[in-house]
Design brief:
CATH topology of the domain at 119-243: Helix Hairpins
Mean pLDDT: 83
Strand order of the largest sheet: 3-12-15-14-13-16
Strand content: 25-35%
Largest sheet: 6 strands, antiparallel, barrel
Number of strands: 22
Order of helices and strands: HEEEEEEEHHEEEEEEEEEEEEEEE
Helix content: 25-40%
CATH class of the domain at 119-243: Mainly Alpha
Low-confidence stretches: 46-50
């Protein structure tokens, strides 16, 4: 219960005591002192705020520390799994094709996968075979005629030899008789002439027999060459007929069928492909800027389901297509299980590795604006400084000058700084 309002009354004037005045001065001094201390500690922040031309939230930025160590220059590429051996089978002749397999069927070496019907090729083979048989008959007949001619020549030579022997015998008798004056000189000279005539005839027969033998041998060789040439034609046609049965050259799986069943095909028209599932490679496309650095044998790391597999560059295309260079990567160690044709894979090509290199983590600051500067973070401020950047890799950037080990720079996009020289960072 309130008795009266005396406790709520305030005197309009009251004489201040010395003790009250001292207490009031102390309170004012304390307030001034605390303010001075606060101003002293807040001066750097105030000075930063005064000298900065922009203020942003530091939590929006990504930073990284400059370090020195091994710099691995690499390039990350996307590729796809391809079979290292995937031959395309072509039609061996004009005709009608019959496919014996379907896409996805497993085949082994030598299995028939398609057959081509070519009546023209079969007819040509029959004609050439008949010509070969005709030549074979001519060759046999020429052999018989050659032997008969040689036999006749031997007979003529033998007869001329016998005539020469008889003339020589008559000459000996005529010589003895002429010495004993039993015959006239005329008969003796006749015997000499008969002997000379027989000798000349014998020599002529021998030379004629040699020439006729050489001629018969030449004619026989001509027929032999014609027979051999025709036999080669027949063998080639036989090979072509055998090739009408198209067979798989590798163990693998039938790929895409390029023709319809029972369709007409031309010579060398694609029929189907066979994929060798035991040997895989990665086909990748590398940006043109790295084309001069790619060499066969470079080490490659391939990522499959979070596991790394070793490989190497097996081939680099000499052409540039749409700003990219096509290359092939071969597995050098273990091959992942369950690989499939055209499966996508991420690969990392290791171009070079250098020690004691000043570097920093790669970030979007490389793509925003010019590459000649960076923002260094010091005491809650981001300060723009000139930086000379060298080689780049998938995760690192080489620093040639402008930074030192231990310094922290902004690696996120520098577009937020709006090209200001000093930017104040809040919450940093």
């Amino acid at each position: 219960m309130i008795k009266d309002t005396s406790m709520q009354d305030t005197p309009l004037s009251q004489q201040t005591s010395p003790k009250a005045r001292l207490r009031k001065r102390l309170q004012v001094g304390s307030i001034i002192g605390v303010g001075a201390i606060i101003a002293l500690f807040a001066y750097p922040s105030i000075e930063q705020w005064r000298t900065s031309s922009l203020t942003i939230d530091g939590e929006r930025l990504r930073t990284a520390t400059v370090e020195r160590g091994q710099f691995v220059r690499d390039v990350s590429v996307q590729g796809q799994i391809v079979a290292a051996v995937r031959p395309m089978l072509f039609s061996p002749a004009d005709g009608r094709v019959t496919t014996l397999v379907r896409s996805g069927d497993r085949v082994t070496i030598g299995d028939p996968v398609a057959a081509v019907e070519s009546p023209e090729l079969l007819n040509e083979y029959a004609q050439e075979l008949s010509s070969l048989q005709e030549l074979e008959t001519q060759l046999a007949r020429q052999g018989i005629e050659t032997r008969m001619a040689q036999l006749k020549q031997k007979e003529e030579v033998a007869l001329s030899g016998m005539a020469l022997t008889a003339a020589q015998r008559e000459l000996r008798r005529a010589t003895i008789a002429h010495e004993h004056q039993a015959i006239s000189l005329q008969d003796y000279e006749k015997a000499v002439d008969d002997k000379d005539r027989a000798f000349a005839l014998y020599e002529h027969q021998e030379e004629s027999e040699q020439l006729k033998t050489e001629r018969l041998k030449l004619e026989l060789d001509i027929l032999n060459h014609a027979f051999t040439r025709q036999a080669l034609v027949v063998d080639d046609l036989k090979r072509q007929i055998s090739a009408l049965q198209v067979r798989s050259p590798v163990d693998g799986i039938v790929g895409n069928l390029e023709v319809e069943q029972k369709s007409i095909v031309a010579l060398y028209q694609p029929i189907l492909s066979v994929v060798d599932m035991t040997a895989y490679e990665v086909e990748a496309r590398v940006p043109e800027t790295y084309a001069d650095d790619l060499l066969q044998g470079m080490a490659v790391e391939m990522d499959f389901a979070g596991e790394l597999y070793a490989g190497e560059l097996s081939a680099v295309s000499p052409e540039v297509e749409n700003g990219q260079v096509r290359c092939r990567i071969r597995f050098t160690g273990m091959t992942p299980d369950g690989l499939r044709q055209n499966q996508r894979v991420t690969s990392r090509i290791l171009i070079e590795a250098r020690e004691n290199v000043l570097m920093v983590t790669r970030g979007p600051f490389m793509q925003s604006g010019a590459r000649g500067f960076a923002y260094i973070v010091e005491d809650g401020m981001a300060r723009k400084i000139p930086v000379n950047i060298g080689a780049t890799s998938v995760g690192r950037v080489e620093i040639l000058s402008g930074l030192e080990v231990g310094q922290k720079i902004v690696i996120s996009s520098s577009d937020v700084f709006e090209n200001h020289d000093r930017v104040m960072l809040l919450n940093r």
